[in-house]
Write the structure tokens for this entry.
Amino acid sequence: MYAGQRVRRVDAFDKVTGRTRYTDDLCDRGAYIARILHATVANGRVVSIDTSEAEKVPGVVRILTCFDLKDKHCFPTAGHPWSTDPSHQDVADRLILTDRVRFYGDDVAAVVAEDEVAAAQALRLIRVEYEAYPFVLDVQKAMEDGAPQLHEKYPNNILKHTQIRIGDYQKAIQEPGLTKVEGWYETPVVQHCHIENFICFAESEGDRIKVVSSTQIPHIVRRIVGQALGIDWGRVRVIKPYVGGGFGNKQDILYEPLCAWLSLQVGGHLVKLDVPREETFVCNRTRHSIRNHIVSWVRPDGTYAARKLEAFSDQGAYASHGHSICAKGAGCFPQLYPCDNVEVDAYTVFTNKPVAGAMRGYGIPQAMWAVECHTEDVCAAIGADPVAFRRKNLMPVGYVDGFSKNEMYYDSFNQCLDKAMAAIDYERKFKAYQNQTGDVRRGIGVAMFWYNTAVWPISLESSSCRMVLNQDGSFQLQLAETEIGQGADTAFAQMAADVVGVPLEKVHVVSCQDTDVTPFGTSAYASRQTYIAGFSIRQTGLLLKERILDYAHKLTRMPVFNLDIVDGNIVRTTDGRVLMSLAALAEEALYSLTDSQHIAAESTYQIKSNAYSFGCTIAEVEVDIPLCKVKLLNIVNCHDAGTLINPALAEAQVHGGMSMGIGFGMSEKLMFDEKTGRPLNNNLLDYKLPTMLDHPRLVAEFVENPEPTSAFGTKGLGEPPACSPAPAIRNAILHATGVGVKTAPANPHNLFRAFVEAGLITDSR
Amino acid sequence: MYDIKALYEAESVQDAIRLLQEHPKAQIIAGGSDVLVQIREGRRAGAELVSIFSIDALRGVSYDENEAIRIGSLTSFSHIAASPIIREKIPVLGEAVSLVGGPQIRNIGTIGGNTCNGVTSADSASTLMAWDAVVELHGPEGVRRLPIQDFYIKAGVVDLRPAELQTAIIIPKAAYEGYFGRYIKYAMREAMDIANLGCSVNAKLSGDKKTIEDARVAYGVAGPVPMRAPSAEAIARGRAVCRETVDAFARAVLDDIHPRDSWRAAKAFREHIAVELAKRALTESIERAGGVIDG
């Protein structure tokens, strides 16, 4: 069995030796270079564009502006499975280039040149005249009557408003003896900051267009490039090489349509679009900033009588993944701490900011910031112990969600809490850090998280797998679920080797997806790769095995029911005798003069289940109050992600997610100039992504309760690690200082204001 | 791919001066950790460059005939930090330059570049300022030496005349002997960051360690260029080593510095941190000098 083993990554050698080819490595040197001209007003209209000086730059091939876009096909960008039901389709509000500017950074023109220098020089010489409109950056101001309108179809800029009503909130709050706890909790705009910026290149192949892209979702890119160009989808071929990180940003169509269109404007010549970091921050996707208002009514016994959430999600200028993010956070609110009387109102609202899309956690890091900060505030208000209060109110064993049919099969929350508390020595530290005085104080804080693995029943879930047997008994494994650095290929190989019964090295994962060749699937998003691919790997592996054993029957005359494949050999199960090697069988099958067969299997599995994936973070901090600085001393995440396919890779996932959560909680924030809407810190110096030195040792713990619905007992772990670190850190700061910030990140700027307000810092003079 | 019009490589200081005279618009490039970034950003796109990178005579830390410490302008941050002379006489300078960026930047970045770019946040600048460093410049007219405080004119502008280049930074013996210092970089990250505020303090104590004979303090990011806080220095000078002196010194920096409100940090926040850093840096300087602060 390989599942459950810490086997080495299948791509380890190539990656550490630098042999792995990423998109840029694959692009021919003769490619034209494209650069984009971005708008310098936050809201308005392009009146005219003067390219005359730019055209004179030697090496400029073509300059194309929004006015050159004749066939305007509005397209959606979200990397969601397509819906054949028009009412469930993503909002199609993007154009390849636009004269109607909706954020500072919108795409108004592009230069195609022979090299980067010429492209950059031309870009600086293009003169654009804008008619500037008033703009709005604040999510709630954007909802006011008279606010600048971004899209005609959406009055008050509300993309969508959804509600949840359980019980009778108004009646429930009349119960005598209740304590009301209320708070506003807000998260900032942050960006994914994957190492490899978005890059793609495109060229014509016959009457088709080929796009090679650093994407998570090649088959979706194919569909949307087709939609954006107004051509049949089969005329688009998308290739996805190794990817240097995506975190959801590349679960969106970014500039593939533009690059393909530019190539077609220059006769199908190869055009490369390599987006600089500054533009990646602003002109790709961001995490939705969400402002949450929570009101809880708590009984004297520490249970909830009624709860209410209002969530205002800042979509930025275009719909992208839209309300799905806010709706996911809103949806978990009544589940994490179930209550009989709940009101939830979730709004997703357009503002003149960069476009928010998918980002690791998909609304749950924002929701957990609000819910877990608030839970701590409730504990403080009623004098409850933070862990005991949570244990009392968390989703109980046996809970079933009516919509998804997800079930809480195990006591995951308590098990995760127990393990995390033991790992960080919580009880002792919690007591030791009570009632401190002095400038430097320590604290320890807890936060839980709710997550689910995949997207059923909201969207299609299907996975297709192909296995092709080679002469030596090895086989190629092809899936549409993509390797984007997370280690998916390795987990797939482990599962496939187990199902078919071959040594791991006999599984050759075809890592590159090519929509002309790769079986269909909707690729890497949610936390679903291992869960979803597991179904089609098991089904297809069994199919392959059946075909191999059929052929073995012909060669050995033994009945199929007495045959098995074990460690790459055909074995008679009745006595365990090795009858022949799979390699010998495969060679015979291919070259037999009497019965030649190319043994292969391919199948699609449609998944109609989903799985909860739960856990918690505990963080320990030291706060230097006069310096407004927090040092993260220790942090532990504990997850019930079901059976781990590869514990080493699972730990790596958790480490990465924790790091993202640490930045979210402590330092990261994309800022905008209030006067112009211009982004202020869209670079890795001014945007405070934490460095190695800002991290303590990251501890990953697991509770392995096998997921009953899963093909391999596994469930989601990609996003969950990023969901709870930020509120745990905030709660630790609260424990240390008595000050609980409500707006993330808990950086020195915010802590200074909070400490001054709380009287911990007094005037320096 | 960088937008560079021409690159001229100087073999000696005189050669560099000649090249700068021949190409009056040319920009000097040393390690390139600022210039290349600016070219990429378009600010110096199309520039002509005179590279002084191979003038090895400008590298190294040594004593001159007056026992002044002479740091060649091309000396990298990592070489400064590793220099036995710096470690013995001005360890705080080594500590300060070890906080620049990350290891790669410290290997390529030079102290000459760090001062000639004229930015207030440069990690070496406040310490050099606080140690009365002298800048040596070579130009067509010969050699000039001027106090580093006079070298800084305004944000991004230093007193470099046409065809002139900085060749060394000199710390006179009187400026370092008996002084002990501490630099605190206040930034949002522990590495790869630019200071929100940098505070470099040093002190010289009396023989019995009971009195502050001299104290010097300089800030980065407290104004458009690195700056000293003379009011604070005057308050500490000659005063007893005690908590009250430290507190009075720290409060007085606000009479001298002018941090501004910007999206990077609020004025009130910078002022609060400036006082706190002064307090901590003087305390540690006194401790390093062998003094004991009661209470």
Observations:
- The mean pLDDT of chain A is 97.
